[in-house]
Amino acid sequence: MQQKLSGIAASAGVAIAKAFVHEEPDFNIELRNVENADQEIQLFLDALATSQEELRVIRDKAETELGADKAEIFSAHLLVLNDPELIDAVKEKINQDKQNAEYALNEVATMFISMFENMDNEYMKERAADIRDVTKRVLGHLLGIKAQSLATISEETIVIAEDLTPSDTAQLNPVFIKGFATDIGGRTSHSAIMSRSLEIPAVVGTKEVTKQVETGTLMIVDGLDGDVIIDPSAEQLAHYQTKKEKFERQKEEWAKLVNEPTTTKDGKHVELAANIGTPKDVDGVLNNGAEGVGLYRTEFLYMGRDRLPSEEEQFEAYKEVVERMDGKPVVIRTLDIGGDKELPYLDLPKELNPFLGFRAVRLCLEEQTIFRTQLRALLRASAYGNLKIMFPMIATLEELRQAKALLQEEKAQLQKEGTKVSDSMEVGIMVEIPSTAIAADLFAKEVDFFSIGTNDLIQYTMAADRMNERVSYLYQPYHPAILRLVKMVIDAAHKHGKWAGMCGEMAGDEIAIPLLLGLGLDEFSMSATSILPSRSQIHNLSKEELSSFALEMLQLSTADEVEQKVREHFLNG
Questions:
Q1: What is the arrangement of strands in the sheet containing 218-222, beginning at the earlier edge strand?
Q2: What is the DSSP pairing of strand 387-391 with strand 427-431?
Q3: Which domains does the chain have, with CATH numbers?
Q4: Across-strand partners of 526?
């Protein structure tokens, strides 16, 4: 029956194909009393070992095909399967309560999942999804149930599922999987991020696509506008085929801009840079013609493992990126752990509000051994290219001065040891706290650049957790209050002869780009796949015309009014 569902556009493009409904296996778990507890424990340990081996294979495949940061999730899954708290709790249930392995595992996993899901912390909620994913894998081995594999699909298909786990998404072959749609999920879910890496059109959060579609039904996934069309009419097929071809042609046009500078219609140059998580992401940066790396998130080096990375490991990772960028700027952010990112091996105390707590530079200034190791690695790598250091979450000048003092101490020590370091390395800060934006004129005297981290700046300014669905309406990048803070930062930088960039999601947003250009932003840093569409858009804008337009936008009352004006003037309504 013909039907249209709306969801969240997670990955751009249009897919037209028959549906494949990916169903979870039915784990019928019944309690049995076991007489030989040791034998039952061995069955459990064997299933764990088989699952671990499978995950290592999936991780290696994901690293090769998707990049190291996308493969980190499987390292996290391996840590779950090695977690003594989980393993010992299952063993205890088998030993003391004489429960069968699958029942004991399900009981323990359900307890952990419930605990994590009830935490007010997005990272912890994702941990619940990780535990659910790996538990299903182990249960499958214990019950002799083979999970439905997406890797064996050999015809053009659109995958339909309640949600796709990281394990599922890693199996997707873009040759045959033309798109997917899910009941749940958002733009930042694992499946959405991986779909963008694979360039598979995706719509998530439709709420009911699995109830409305059967395997074999012809359907359309519109990852541009977030629509799913089930059993389309001939007219709809023709319309979406045209839309698909238009998007493909658009991509071909964008591809021609790979080696072009980013200049406005009136000849003004701005820099388009890319955000990365690991050295493997540099391929995407170069393939999409970025003019630099505007944000290298170093925390991926620390995550998905059971110990801190050594100075040498870090040095090699930073050196590889700056060398491959061949003189183009590489802004490397020092460790930003805390908030939604935790390191289990640091054993930090749980906090009621981790986003406002002991994180980023606050943690580094207290845990100086960790910080100094990273600073040494960065300084050593600075001799191999155009490396710039950026401190995150700076709230006060005292923090900035302390971080710079530690950097200078490590630089002097390295030079004393005869190690070459750059003499012209720029040092800047992320502006993501409203107080720092308001006092930007004071900070501008003591930094070489600013990079505005809008993801946090918006949620702190609006006092709204961007991961909380009930207040997500307050996550408003175009709100006049946000635009005024951005203007303060850019004006302060320029007044002191410094440059200002932006590395939040807003930098690659087609509504925000005209506003940011008009406010005088010098550098836009975004996901690599946004570079070419953004360059194309900037080529058609006049910076001079936008300057007065942006100032007018600051006087409007609401984010909706701002968005409407930008659409009317620059996006054909």
A1: 3-6, 227-230, 218-222, 14-21, 157-161, 177-182, 202-204, 8-11
A2: parallel
A3: 3-23+149-232 (3.50.30.10), 37-143 (1.10.274.10), 264-570 (3.20.20.60)
A4: 274
Q: Which helix (H) or strand (E) holds 177?
A: strand 177-182
Query: Residues with catalytic annotation?
Result: 190, 503
Q: Distance from CA of residue 443 to its chain's centroid?
A: 28
> Collapsing DSSP states into helix, strand and coil, what is residue 85?
helix
pLDDT tens digits, 279-323: 888 988 999 999 999 999 998 888 767 789 999 999 999 999 999
483 phi and psi, to 5 degrees? -60, -35
**HSE value, Cβ hemisphere, 13 Å, CA-based, for 400:** 22
Residue type, 422: S
How far does CA 515 lie from the centroid of its chain?
24
Rounded-to-integer distance, Cα 408 and Cα 412, Å: 6
Three-class SS state of 175: coil
Check if the beta carbon of residue 379 is closer than 8 Å to that of residue 411.
yes
Q: Which residue has the higher pLDDT, 79 or 372?
A: 372
493 three-state secondary structure: helix
Taking a C-beta distance cutoff of 8 angstroms, is the pair 462, 474 a contact?
Answer: yes
Confidence tier at 188 by pLDDT (50, 70, 90): low
Query: Within 13 Å of residue 20, how many CA atoms lie on the same side as its CB?
Result: 21
Closest CA to 279 of 240, 326, 323: 323
Per-residue burial over 357-372, b = 16 or more CB atoms within 10 Å of its CB, e = otherwise: bebbbbbbeebeebbb
SS (H, E, C) 402-439: HHHHHHHHHHHHHHHCCCCCCCCCCEEEEECCHHHHHC
Q: How far apart are the first and last CA of the chain?
A: 33
Distance CA 223, CA 268 (A): 33
d(C-alpha 128, C-alpha 167), whole Å: 15
What is the per-residue pLDDT across 373-425, written as a single tens digit (0 to 9) for each? 999 999 999 999 999 999 999 999 999 999 999 999 999 999 999 999 999 99
pLDDT tens figures, 92-122: 999 988 999 999 999 989 888 877 776 655 5
Which of helix, strand or coil describes residue 24?
coil
Give the type of residue at 435. S
pLDDT at res. 119: 60
